[in-house]
What we know:
2 copies of one chain form a homodimer.
Chain A: H1 6-35, H2 46-54, H3 58-76, E1 83-87, E2 91-99, E3 102-106, H4 115-128, E4 132-137, H5 147-155, E5 160-163, H6 166-175, E6 185-187, H7 192-201, E7 206-207, E8 215-220, H8 226-237, E9 244-249, H9 252-267, H10 272-282, E10 283-287, H11 291-301, E11 305-309, H12 313-316, E12 325-328, H13 334-339, E13 365-373, H14 375-391, H15 395-402
Parallel strand pairs in A: 3-4, 3-6, 4-5, 6-7, 8-9, 8-11, 9-10, 11-12
Antiparallel strand pairs in A: 1-2, 2-13
Amino acid sequence: MALFTEEIKDSVGEIERMVQSRGDAALMALTEKFDGVKLESLKVSEEAMDEAFVNVSTDLLIALEKAKENIEKYHRKQLRESFFTREENGGMLGQMITPLKRVGLYVPGGTAAYPSSVLMNGIPAALAGVKEIVLISPPQQDGKIHPGVLVAAKLIGITEVYTLGGAQGIFAMTYGTESIPKVDKIVGPGNVYVTLAKKMVYGQVDIDMIAGPSEILIIADKDQNPAFIAADLLSQAEHDPLASAILITPSKALGEAVLKELEQQQQNLQRKDITQTALENQGKIIITETLEEAFHLSNRFAPEHLELLVEDPMSHLPKVENAGCVFLGPYSPEPLGDYYAGTNHTLPTSGSAKYFSPLSVDDFIKNTSLVYYTKEGLQRARKDIELLADYEGLEAHKKAVSLRFEEDTEDRKI
Amino acid sequence: MALFTEEIKDSVGEIERMVQSRGDAALMALTEKFDGVKLESLKVSEEAMDEAFVNVSTDLLIALEKAKENIEKYHRKQLRESFFTREENGGMLGQMITPLKRVGLYVPGGTAAYPSSVLMNGIPAALAGVKEIVLISPPQQDGKIHPGVLVAAKLIGITEVYTLGGAQGIFAMTYGTESIPKVDKIVGPGNVYVTLAKKMVYGQVDIDMIAGPSEILIIADKDQNPAFIAADLLSQAEHDPLASAILITPSKALGEAVLKELEQQQQNLQRKDITQTALENQGKIIITETLEEAFHLSNRFAPEHLELLVEDPMSHLPKVENAGCVFLGPYSPEPLGDYYAGTNHTLPTSGSAKYFSPLSVDDFIKNTSLVYYTKEGLQRARKDIELLADYEGLEAHKKAVSLRFEEDTEDRKI
């Protein structure tokens, strides 16, 4: 979980107050302060969106299109139907599914660009039927949002985009400003300031989840390729010095081979500083007696990403109780899920896979229950309802039913 | 939203520390302090559960059984299947649904009893397949949980019950004590101490929602029965001096008739103090130009309970964007939903119907994504994945894929 120092809390609290009282002016000032950019306007024009296509390669476009296709195909299977039931007692019940009206996507920026984040957050929202999807992302040095982000947004039909980041972006979307109407839900990961801001506004808006540091847990048997395992551990370790990378195996020899591989593979990594810190502090190689024990430990940890590099991995699936996403076999490296396969890469961290799920279409809809009884139906039900209301000491609840059948009240009209 | 004064926060913080450090001993001490009862044991024995049946009427049992049947029937329609997909590229994806392992139900107690709360929280959990459902409820003066609560628990198969309430109950279920193993999720409403405790532990466990005061909003046309409307407004007002009760109608005459009815009907209510305060502070009768406008206002308020007392209510449903539960027509009084019809009575309040849903089976399961690619499948995908990882500056992500096809690493074994 992100560490919110007093200093960070004060800073974010101040930003909140500024945005609430000064709206767009505060956003401009804060963007200049934190991003070093003097914006002319917050909203990204259609021309600027189109221009971004010039600044990305055709290969990237093809890759994004393919990823989009896969992500849509998978998430489409999550769509649910509203339902109605006919009750024999003369009534009808229902569950009506409505997309959220307006959702804000936060896409981190700065030096790196995350078009995959746009796809993973935006596609389920679009499939759910959200009419107004807003995207905000901080500017680069040149004052513009990274072209890869703009291109991904355009690809999935997002046209309302603002050059805006940080806690100020979260508060703008929560409270609304002159330029930016407020939203009902905010999704997307960000730095510690963004994460704290999201936590603060939860309840006034909905949020996806408080993202903790990345985690990978690999269960492997002795027959696996240690180079693959090391590479996968490093792929998560490179995210964050706080990332966790764990191998659990009954084979001591495999554990030792992976250690060697880790050392070797890290030499050539640009982000060696980050991976080394992550592995030193949160890296583990655990040797168990049995494979069974490995699953037991994994369930207790409830990892964000779980790789099963074991013989016949499907047969072991019933043992998995808690994990965000499971990658089976030696050719399902975790980055496959991050970018391409179609499953969502926004996953529960910090043990919350015990009760939270990957981001899905469900995160962008809400249900409304329906109750429609006939007079006869209510008459048949009234004895039981009145008895229960009476038992719970709720007299007016009881009377709301009984009065509908009392001579002097049952037919009143103005 | 509940008001958490400094005093309440301090008190609950102290309770948390006591439970964390002294476990069962703290629970005993706090139950004596707050409930005035010296418990012999926390766990309710099977005999005590059975004994409760002697202390409730047969009629109540019949009513609870019927309500249970209706609630099960409705919630069963919410059950979802895990799915698997076959990808033409040589891969397989899936979404695996797993029930939460252990869930705690909080049932408020004291002078009143809420067997309906047991059913509404327990049945979706049981249908979802949660193996360990724990129920806690504070003792009455005689040291026992109210028999109606025990009976309802037994009816739906809950056997792990503890005589325990308040914030201490929430912390016991979150951290675990000698007697009470910790849970993954806590559901159920409670007083301001319980609500604050739930808010504090959210993230360490999941919770259902932070329940705000009850709300009813009635949209009515001129042909409706003002006695019905007044009775329904009062049925919510009786919950809480902070409850909201709103009528929106294009008919001034109806509004005036309802005002008269409210005055008259309140005379005879035991909970008159509560209803009067609620209506004074949060009661409204709004006269609009058109029915259309009424729906517009209702959507902005996003009520917990929405009653449509209008001609052909179904035809107006498409206008409803935000509401927890909609009651259609003159014979669907809100208490029908609270106790009997089958829909859940745990609903979003304080405007959160814009993005939250009624409690459902979905609240007791979690999804796990599955990814299983063949070597050929990954080979076909690798160019796109490596390009995307590279674009995002994640080198180790790229290498985790490419290394699987490099001569010196692709076939390594220990």
